Amino acid sequence: MSKAPRVIYWFRTDLRLHDSPALAAALDLKPECLYPIWTWDPHYVYRARVGVNRWQFLIDCQNDLSQGITRINKNSKLLVLREAPQTLLPKLFKEWRITHLVFEKDTDAYARERDDKICEIANEMGVRVITKSGRTLYDSDLLVKTNHGKPTMTIAQVQAAAAKLGKVAEPLPPPTHLPDFGDLSLEGVEQEKPQPEPDFNRTHRTGDEGSYEGGIAGPKGDFSVPTLEELGLQEATTPHRGGESLALQILEGVISNETFTATFSKPSTAPTAFEPQSTCLTSPHLHFGSLSCRLFWHKVQEVLDKYKGKASEPPTSLHGQLLFRDMYFGAQAAIGYPFAQTAMNDHCRFVPWHLPSKVDEKTGLITGEYEVDDPQKEEWFNRWRDGKTGFPWIDALMRQLALEGWIHHLGRHAVACFLTRGGCYIHWERGAEVFEELLIDHETACNVGNWQWLSCVAFYSQYYRCYSPIAFPQKWDKEGAFVRRYVPELKDMPTKYIYEPWKAPIQDQKKAGVLIKGDGEQEKEGDLSLYPKPIFDFPKQREICINGLKGAYSVGLHGDSPKVLDGTWKEMFDDDAEGPTEGHKGGPAGSLDEEHAHNTEDLNPHKSTPSKKRGAQTTLENTFKKART
DNA sequence: AAATTGTTGGAGGA
DNA sequence: TCCTCCAACAATTT
Question: Binding of FAD: at which residues (predicted)?
Answer without folding.
Answer: 279-283
